[in-house]
Specification:
Layout (H helix, E strand, L loop, with lengths): L3 E3 L6 H6 L5 H9 L5 H8 L3 H4 L9 H14 L3 E5 L5 H15 L4 E4 L12 H9 L4 E5 L6 H9 L3 E5 L13 E3 L15 H15 L13 H10 L7 H13 L5 H9 L9 H18 L3 H8 L3 H34 L7 E4 L8 H12 L3 E6 L5 E6 L6 H8 L4 E6 L3 E6 L7 H9 L11 E3 L1 E2 L7 H8 L13 E7 L2 E5 L5 E7 L5 E6 L5 E2 L2 E2 L6 E11 L6 E9 L1
Parallel strand pairs: 1-12, 2-3, 2-4, 4-5, 5-6, 7-8, 13-14, 17-21
Antiparallel strand pairs: 8-9, 9-11, 10-11, 14-20, 15-16, 16-17, 18-19, 20-21
Length: 568
């Protein structure tokens, strides 16, 4: 059972008056998300593109970047778009490709490094190739902030580099032609939380404003399907400008004409018109990320950018197929990791690895370990060149980048990431000291409260499960980091039917009845209280549950049901 904190507080008279135009439930949900005034509420509930999307020229180096790119276009220079291989970098790369296609500029190329053979960010072998191919300008997407030596090498070879990124900036910055990263200390952009695809979208906005292109005003809004996908996938806070990106991104995704997206949704038997952020996070994003994890990331890029419907369909089928392979691989590695932990004493930080483990999925293993053990976890494997690389996830009490910086350069050869997640490389002769050094550094860094306590918004009854309340909750969507889906507690509900289902019999379905005798169904995927295909929950049991309200469109039938978060 997960720890939880019940908000369920009575609103003050002042707040009730402020929110008097809203139903009580909506007012409580707004207040629990830090919204305290009518003005803030209206802004949150009714995003406005012209109001909420900031002026791109507020970002440091935007003017300089735009001038350089427009000069390159005018002179016919060869432009290389170098993006990260994840579900932020790849959609961002699609955004920029769409821009060049729209303006009719042919002399550009997209390049996505291979996760295992090249690793994250720019690399020297790629720079040599670009020089040989006559590249004049490199524009990075979702990477570059830490690539000091590679960028210096590019500049020495006469290749200018424009960095567009959103990762944490250190005291030292690369000697690039220009850097678009709102996390720079001297950048006055109003929102430093946007994703990598958000930064490249700002660049496209700026180019459309300054360039003399015959493009209908507002065309760039069609790019928000990719920006919204990246924003939700990359787990950035869905506040401020990201609220607008995700909100309008979902609207465009529901009618996006991209062949790859349409075929992938068809393959997964999902209704595009009713697409949700959960569909992105749990169904679409894994199939984009799987390309780099165990194959070639260019296939995910081609899926989202292809103009050939047949090719797009083939790619959708292929990515779905290798995603099944990825699931099996992760399950095996997680089982091995938990076995290793049983055989030894755990420290404050979990550090595990094996030369046999696939570096593309170690981040998923680390996430699983955090969920099970509630400890910050570092997991490593060995790439195709024999290098030790890994991923880390925080349990919420520490900043993993700060933790790695505390360890020092004698252990890590490269680090990067955010507070909650990061990546690293370790020299082969130092990896055996990694666990000791991380646990030692853990004792000397500032720690906050763990984020393992689930916030429960309100106690409700089965009679509160109705379409009217669901529509109020839906006004807060899309949900994600910084705008979590509302969680409700229902106490003492009698179970009327129990069902265990799924290929591995690991999903649970429970039915209840409200006071009117109406059936209320609920579901929990990968239920922990199922063993060997059976659950101890029986018909007639009275239980307490934490739930989300959700709309199921299975087999084109709308059903309001409960998603079980936990049993209490």
């Amino acid at each position: 059972m997960q720890k939880f904190t019940l908000r369920d507080q009575e609103l003050s008279e002042k707040i009730k008056q402020e929110f008097k135009v809203y139903p009580e439930l909506l007012g409580q949900l707004l207040f629990s998300r830090g919204i305290k005034t009518m003005e803030e509420a209206e802004r949150f509930l009714n995003p406005d593109y012209s109001r909420d999307i900031h002026d791109p020229f507020l970002m440091k180096d935007m003017e300089k970047s735009v001038e350089r790119i427009l000069k390159a276009i005018e002179s016919g220079e060869k432009i290389l778009i170098y993006s990260d291989y994840d579900a932020d970098g790849i959609p961002g790369a699609v955004v920029f490709k769409d821009f060049f296609k729209k303006i009719g500029y042919p002399n550009f190329e997209n390049y996505i490094p291979h996760r295992h053979n090249e690793g994250y960010g720019l690399n020297f072998d790629a720079i040599k190739k670009f020089k040989k191919d006559g590249v004049d300008l490199i524009i990075t997407i979702d990477c570059g902030t830490k690539d000091f030596y590679e960028i210096e090498e590019a500049q020495k070879n006469g290749i200018d580099v424009i960095i567009t990124d959103h990762h944490i900036v250190g005291e030292k910055i690369p000697n690039a032609f220009s850097i678009l990263n709102p996390k720079q200390e001297d950048c006055n952009y109003p929102d430093d939380g946007i994703a990598g695809a958000g930064v490249i979208f700002k660049l496209v906005q700026a180019l459309l404003q300054r360039g003399n292109f015959e493009i209908k005003e507002g065309w760039e809004k069609w790019l928000l399907d990719m920006v919204g996908l990246a924003t939700i996938s990359d787990m950035v806070p869905l506040k401020n400008e990201n609220r607008a990106f995700s909100y309008f991104g979902m609207k465009v995704l529901r009618k996006s004409p991209r062949y790859g997206l349409i075929h992938l949704l068809r393959k997964l038997r999902m209704d595009q018109r009713n697409l949700t952020e959960d569909d992105l996070a749990f169904m679409i994003t894994p199939r984009i990320n799987v390309a780099s994890r165990i194959d070639d990331p260019i296939k995910a890029f081609e899926l989202l950018s292809s103009d050939d419907e047949v090719v797009a369909g083939e790619l959708a089928n292929y990515l779905d197929k290798i995603n099944s392979k990825r699931k099996t691989l992760v399950t095996t590695m997680v089982r091995q990791a938990n076995k290793k932990l049983k055989e030894r004493k755990e420290g404050d930080v979990i550090v595990l690895g094996s030369p046999e483990w696939n570096v593309g999925v170690v981040g998923l293993v680390a996430s699983s370990l955090v969920g099970k053990h509630q400890k910050t976890s570092f997991v490593w494997g060995q790439d195709g060149k024999g290098n030790i690389k890994g991923s880390c996830r925080s349990c919420g009490s520490v900043d993993v980048v700060e933790l790695m910086n505390k360890v020092g350069e004698d252990i890590f050869t490269n680090i990067g990431g955010h507070k909650m997640a990061g990546g690293f490389s370790v020299s082969n002769d130092q990896v055996h000291f990694l666990e000791e050094k991380l646990n030692e550094a853990y004792q000397h860094i500032e720690k906050g409260e763990k984020s393992d306590s689930l916030m429960v918004d309100k106690k409700i009854t089965l009679d509160d499960i109705n379409w009217g309340n669901y529509q109020l909750i839906e006004k807060l969507a899309p949900f994600g980091m910084g705008n979590e889906k509302p969680v409700f507690m229902i106490e003492g509900v009698e179970v009327f039917n129990v069902k265990v289902f799924g290929k591995q019999n690991n999903h649970l379905g429970l039915d209840f009845k409200n006071t009117k005798g109406q059936n209320i169904s609920s579901i929990q995927f990968f239920a922990e209280n199922i063993e060997d295909g059976e659950t101890k929950i029986q018909r007639g049991d009275k239980i307490n549950i934490l739930v989300n309200l959700e709309k199921s469109t299975f087999r084109n039938v709308n059903e309001l049901r409960l998603r079980i978060v936990d049993f209490v």
